[in-house]
Amino acid sequence: MKASEVKLTKTVIDAAEPREQRYSLWDSELKGFGVRIGVGGVKTFVAKYLAEGGGRRAPQRFYSIGRVGALTVEQARRRAKEIIGAAANGQDPALDRNGKRQERTVAELIDLYESEGCYIQRGKRQGEPMKPLTKKYTMARLRHHVVPLLGRKRVTEIGAAEIERFFRDVENGKTVKNEKTGPRTRIIVKGGSGAARKVFRDFSAVLSFAKRFSLIESNPCEKAVVKKTDNARTRFLSLDELRRFGAACDALEKEGANPKALNIARLWALTGCRRQEIVELKWAEVDFDSGLITLDDTKTGQSTRPLPIAAIALLRNLERVDGTDYVFPADTGESFFQCAATTTMAG
């Protein structure tokens, strides 16, 4: 059946009844603007145009503008004018929109980054794969902060303004969460400026990865106006605080607290090492004669650290366990000591 032409008004559209086959009514005033009536009675505003600037061999495109009711006739007419005008200037709005629908969302980009892009971005170890624990915490921050706030957006829709808004939302605690996920597991997602800065750096690495693979033209994090660096920390424990800390550990040990956990905490305080550097410490890395520990695999590569006398004394008093080189071996299995409960931290 030949398509009808009539001036489209609310009255005309409301009176249009469904038929056995889908059909269209085309506006007599704006060529290419119409309404499509489905067999079930659904009515949709559409625009049609000739792509590639027009011409006898130009392909005809149809662009769905929106449902009748969600848009008024005049709103749809204005949008149709924009679409038809863009086509007359050589653009292809329908093809552009279909291409945009095929673009990756931020959530999909993060999935790709996890499988292909989790490499150190800066420093001496640039280009090396992240250590498993670093990757675990990085992906947790991305999934618990970025995905809830930006995950459904197309990657190409993210600009500096969206990054700045995202940063403020994390800073203001919009993604904070503390959920029990199992008998001995819990997810804790923190907010605040520190969490915002960490996940900002993580997301910037993801967007740099997207830029390298030509998924975006530039990294919007580079233009975002946010506080990108942590505050310089100059606070150290005083001797009195160290004594009180030691006394508290001694008291907890008398109450039955796990001595491995307490000795790990004592070494943190005495050496200034990172958490995992002490938890994963091996006897082969400890040199009692020189008073040093040489860590084979840290965030900055191999690293040698001095051991204070108190730390040497603590290590000398520890009993070595046969069959493992870990200073703090797990109670069961062949790994290092870990807490029984699993907590996923993000931020």
From TrEMBL:
Stored Pfam families: Arm-DNA-bind_3 (PF13356), Phage_integrase (PF00589)
Taxonomic superkingdom: Bacteria
Domain annotation Tyr recombinase: ranges: 232-347
InterPro entries reported in the protein's UniProt record: DNA_brk_join_enz (IPR011010), Integrase-like_cat_sf (IPR013762), Integrase_catalytic (IPR002104), Integrase_DNA-bd_sf (IPR038488), Integrase_DNA_bind_dom (IPR025166), Integrase_recombinase_N (IPR010998), Phage_Integrase (IPR050808)
Stretches that traverse the bilayer: none
Signal peptide: none
Keywords: DNA integration, DNA recombination, DNA-binding
PANTHER family per record: PROPHAGE INTEGRASE, PROPHAGE INTEGRASE INTS-RELATED
Similarity-based family: Belongs to the 'phage' integrase family.
Protein name: Integrase family protein
Organism whose genome encodes this protein: Novosphingobium album (ex Liu et al. 2023)
